[in-house]
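Two folds, back to back.
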Amino acid sequence: MEYKKISIILPVYNTKDYLERCFHAIQRQRYKDIEVIIIDDGSTDGSDGICKKICEEDSRFQYYYQENSGVSAARNHGIELAKGDLITFVDSDDWIEENIYEKMVLAMNKDHSDMIVCDAVIWEDGKDKYIDSVEGMKESCLLSKEEISMDILYQLAGAVWRCMYRSSMIKDNKVGFPVGLKLSEDRIFNIYCIGCCKRISYLKEGLYFRYVRVGSAVYQRHRDMDEIALYAYREMIKAINRTGFASAKVLYDEQFLGICYKAIDEISYIDGKISFFYKYKKIRNLCCTEEVKNALKHTKHKYPKTGLMKTRMYLLLTLISMLSQCKVE
């Protein structure tokens, strides 16, 4: 089967300042057989007007509104509506190279692949841009599932916006994003997809432009980061076990501990109305979960937090974390 039509799923939530750049980048695509499914996830900043305007100007763009339910629910909604042979995702504050889809479709048809991943150029506020590439892969190539090492899996699975997928592979296997999860949703979705693929193409070209802005989800603080970390880890382990990638657990243990360190900082940051005892109790409860204790057994981390967690010095851990957050402010 030759792939033709692409369904581009584009969730929008309060990004009116970036929408025209994103939409125009899609309109400039050399590959024309596309449909753009805009899912407005309850925007309140006037994004809806910009979305409706582009739909009036270009019939390939379609607008759908839903009550605020999160990016995973918005993407799942888009998957349900998609009519293309291929599915891809764009974040509404990002933009893309004008030949990204032309190159992806050409490679997928040549390789008869189920999924393709390209490199990305990362633009972060106040920092120099850099290429997010798959280390260890020096050139574009075709991989079978069996050829994917655990290190390569970890890198390939990181983000959905640099990927394109065979639509029937997603729909036939009922792959979706975990609703309610505030991090790692891309990685979990991609692990399920990679597990369903026979052949995966890789393009070693920076064709997607990722804008990491102050105020985006990357920078948001979460009071419940401890609960988010545990939920994400449990879903991750479920995914790698179900797809035959259980040997990758050690890598995700390391990632999980990194998120736990952030959760401890988030708990420590909670305003002064919350008592020291409350913060200590939340940190202690997180560190005493079976998930954290098992991850600590195998970690190679040598951070101060790691030593305090291993030796169960939770009171000191809380105090040091609170002091470090004071310095950050």
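---
second:
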Amino acid sequence: MKLIKHLVAAVAVTLLGALSASAQSNVRLPERPNRPSHSDYSQYDRGFWCAVEATGGSTALSHRRNMQPVGLDVVGGYRFSEFLKVGIGVAGTYCIESEHVRTSKDWLYPIYADVRGNFTTQNDTEGAPYWEMAIGGQVNGGFWMGPTLGWRWGGQRSSFLLGLNFQLMQLDTWKKQNELLAVWSLKLGYEF
């Protein structure tokens, strides 16, 4: 009798194991979707970069009235490393109080080559000092140049910018044609 009980128990366990194993073999896992994998471009050291910057400042004319240029710049280009980025920029600049300085109240549109980079690495810190050199010309003006020194906050490929900018603008003024005017301005921007 004991032998039959043991035999029935062994057969029952074997049948339950076989049933559960066969039931699991019919289960199919979903297939991986057929789409491109995601790339986190913020981790790449090289590639396209873009910056949008707002500027505001004033000329530094002695014994004359000053004007206050304000503008918006968009720059895009190629990032070789955090220490060197090369691009092309376009800006729209409006000069407040310019009727006392310029012969025209037209907007200025600088188009320029832009080279910039960090002085130190931003890998281990939340910020780093940066430099920028922009040089080109203006629609409704002449020669234009704007070097900047500033600070970047954020990641390698996503940073806020704050910089002190010095611009040389060639404009027709009431004093003379094609006069070079110096402008000190503050630059706020976002770079990605």
